[in-house]
Write a structure and sequence with these properties.
This protein has about 725 residues and is α/β, with parallel strands linked by helices. It is about 40% helix and about 20% strand. The protein has 28 helices and 21 strands. Strand 13, helix 16 and strand 14 form a beta-alpha-beta unit. Helix 9 crosses helix 10 (about 220-250).
Length: about 725
């Protein structure tokens, strides 16, 4: 049955159990095929030494360098009190800089004999600092002798591949293992159709694997990477194209708005006209709703671009046809807020069956996990009878007890917070698959949308409605310029004195000590900085007693009871609270037009997109917004550069590109959040935009002509490898 037995061979049979165990546990490599697809990160030229000048701190590095000098020192210590302790210090150089190596105790004998001045070798270890100088302690090393048989064989070719390695397995050991399995590359089945490969002048897959692991020239590496990028882009796009093709075969009830129904009544009452963008996106959605297969559309819009209004109009159109619409929110706070804003926007149109409701009115119900039994029973009854045309809720909507009369449209807010299984369960509640609209306020670069959401059609809202004010953003360097931080709190007081309100955001809640898991979860960065991130509870106490004394300060965080959270939000929305000290609970969807200033403490602990998202909470009314990013990181640090980028632009798409370039793509199919492996190895979503766009076209044409890929066994094998069971389900449900 197996088409590629050589590549499916477990590594423990080929390399021995010890090496195979390390590869499986630390690199996620289990078969010969996995190892062949573990590509070098970069290459060293034997004639040219690496740059010791720019070594990163605390990272495992491999360098090729020459020994400049080696000295053996004796010293006294607890273990060797008579001055018999030994320390070998070796200085290596590569022309760009020097680096100290140090060996202790019994570990000095072998390097003392081998690392003589003039010797060239590869050294691997973790970069640390001692006496203000960079050093590698007890590095592993491999001598580069041009004459020894093994060295010549192992490092054949002028370019030495450097593999992503771990402390347990150095790059050259991975290299040797790759050389052992490289002959199997000849049996790799090519996933690309011949016509596509020849048309684009790409080398075959066995050839690409050979060239990437054992290149003779830089041209070999380029040809191999071009080919392997195409594989990744194409196989992924074929998977998505097949998903779209299968969706197009599903039946759905077409939903066209009635000419004089609920939607027209709603539009007639709007106190403003829709922006051009809102009109265009609404047309795209209405066209999709009118077809007899389910809509799958992603609606991207900056915070405050009016996505909720567009989604509500789609929901009303479905209610006009006798169907029901469900809006799924990731948190209770957000579900309650959506419910408030939808009922406010609809007015008496949301009072179906009640005194004062108009003839077209429907009922809008809220369903969350923390509702009382009576309210919950009534909401469930309204859904099953069809009395409620619109339901807004959290994942409580997905429970088995919830039955719909005729579910026609599912709107999911903030897709990335919502599990695939949950969306799938909700889809299963319609008599036929309902239409699906996914909203996200996280701007997604076009190529990422083509990969992560490749089975959804995309609509983008990129203009802000009239009346939204610009937000000024500034970095506050608290350590370098403490008076800037003092000025920050003065600005907050000034805004409050003018009748406005403020948010202060912190990375932590502050009661984690009770949680045994939290103690273990310290990141390397926390350890390095020795100061835990600022906490909401501490910050609120400090501000109330200090710079914001006399103002009404409240706290909001995720571990509060839902009722308490809602009460705090209501007081803040009503203007009873001056300053809300919160975690990122407020990141999504909380709308208080009177809040004009946001102070983000330890801003360097947040991602670029998250900062942009948070900042969108101010400047929602007529008064201009102000966002102050407080950080103690030094000016030259990468973290500060990231904050400067956020302060410099309000363009979410530009920021999402920066964010992505810094974080790399993660696993684009959404699995493997652990970050151990990414399904993209050589394809960079940002840089390779053209390849992804071309691969998408080729994949669509191929799947339209041959949905089952009957004539392409190699492509089917590659798809099986990409879509192992979990990913298959992920796409199925996506």
């Amino acid at each position: 049955m197996d088409l590629v037995p050589a590549l499916d061979e477990p590594l423990k049979k080929v390399l021995g159990p010890a090496t195979a165990k390390v590869m499986a546990e630390h690199l996620g490599l289990h078969t010969v095929g996995d190892l062949l697809h573990h590509y070098p990160r970069r290459y060293e030229e034997r004639g040219q030494l690496t740059h010791l000048a720019d070594l990163p701190m605390d990272e495992h590095v491999t360098v090729v360098a020459q020994v400049a000098d080696a000295r053996l020192h004796s010293f006294a210590s607890a273990k060797a009190p008579r001055g018999k302790g030994q320390r070998l210090e070796v200085t290596i150089t590569d022309g760009s800089g020097r680096l100290q190596l140090v060996f202790f105790g019994a570990g000095v004998h072998k390097p003392h004999k081998e690392l003589l001045p003039g010797t060239r070798a590869m050294f691997a270890g973790k970069v640390s600092v001692f006496n203000r100088r960079l050093q590698l302690a007890h590095p592993a090393y491999e001598l580069l002798k041009g004459d020894a048989e093994e060295a010549v064989d192992t490092w054949a070719g002028a370019l030495i591949p450097m593999y992503p390695a771990t402390a347990k397995l150095e790059s050259w050991k991975i290299g040797k293992a790759v050389q052992t399995v490289l002959p199997s590359a000849q049996e790799a089945l090519d996933p690309l159709p011949d016509s596509l490969r020849e048309g684009r002048g790409l080398v075959s897959l066995p050839e690409a694997l050979l060239r990437i692991h054992r290149p003779q020239t830089k041209a070999d590496i380029a040809a191999a990477r071009d080919r392997l990028k195409w594989d990744e882009a194409f196989v992924l796009q074929v998977a998505l194209a097949r998903r779209r093709h299968a969706d197009a075969q599903l039946p759905a009830v077409p939903r066209s708005a009635a000419p004089d129904g609920l939607l027209s009544a709603f539009d007639d009452r709007l106190p403003f006209t829709l922006t051009e963008g809102q009109q265009k996106v609404s047309r795209e959605i209405f066209d999709d709703l009118a077809t007899d297969h389910p809509m799958h559309r992603l609606l991207q819009g900056e915070v405050g671009s009016g996505k909720t209004l567009v989604a509500l109009r789609a929901m009303l159109a479905v209610v006009d046809t006798g169907g029901q619409a469900a809006l799924l929110a990731p948190t209770e706070v957000l579900a309650q807020q959506h419910h408030r804003s939808v009922t406010e926007m609809m007015g008496d149109l949301a009072e179906g069956g009640m005194l004062g409701g108009t003839e077209h009115a429907t009922k809008v119900v809220l369903l969350t996990g923390s509702m009382g039994a009576a309210g919950r029973r009534q909401a469930l009854l309204d859904l099953v009878t069809g009395e409620a045309g619109i339901v807004i809720g959290t994942h409580a909507l997905i429970e088995d007890k919830v039955q719909f009369h005729d579910l026609g449209l599912v709107v999911v807010d903030e897709q990335h917070r919502f599990g695939v299984e949950q969306r799938d369960a909700l889809r299963g509640k319609g008599k036929q698959p309902p239409h699906l609209l996914v909203m996200t306020a996280t701007p997604i670069p076009r190529t990422v949308a083509m990969t992560v959401f490749g089975d959804l059609d995309t609509s983008v809202l990129d203009q802000l409605p009239a009346g939204r004010s610009p937000i000024a953003s500034h970095v506050v360097p608290a350590a370098d310029k403490p008076h800037f931080l003092a000025r920050t709190w003065e600005r907050v007081r000034e805004e409050v004195s003018q009748g406005h309100q403020a948010y202060v955001v912190c990375p932590r809640i502050g009661d984690e000590e009770d949680d045994p898991r939290a103690a273990k979860k310290k990141s390397a960065e926390d350890e390095a900085e020795k100061r835990p991130p600022l906490a909401v509870l501490d910050m609120a106490a400090q501000l109330s007693a200090g710079p914001l004394q006399g103002l009404k300060v409240e706290v909001l965080h995720g571990r509060m009871q839902p009722d308490d959270k809602d009460a705090v939000m209501r007081r803040f929305a009503a203007g009873e609270t001056d300053v809300l000290v919160a975690t990122t609970v407020i990141e999504v969807g909380v709308n208080v037009p009177n809040a004009t200033v946001m102070v983000i403490m330890d801003a360097d602990r947040f991602g670029v997109s998250q900062l942009h998202q948070l900042r969108g909470r101010v400047g929602r009314g007529a008064a201009p917004g102000l966002c102050l990013l407080v950080s103690e990181m030094p000016e030259a640090s990468a973290a500060r550069q990231r904050l400067n980028a956020v302060a410099a632009t309000l363009d979410g798409f530009e920021l999402s590109r920066i964010d992505l370039e810094q974080r790399r793509e993660g696993d684009v199919l959404g699995q493997a959040q652990s970050g151990a492996r990414t399904s993209l190895r050589v394809l960079a979503v940002i840089e390779d935009e053209e390849i992804i766009a071309e691969a998408r076209e080729e994949a669509a044409a191929l799947v339209a002509a041959d949905p089952d890929l009957a004539g392409l066994p190699g492509l089917r094998t590659a798809l099986d490898a990409l879509l192992d069971e979990e990913r298959e389900q992920y796409l199925e449900k996506g």
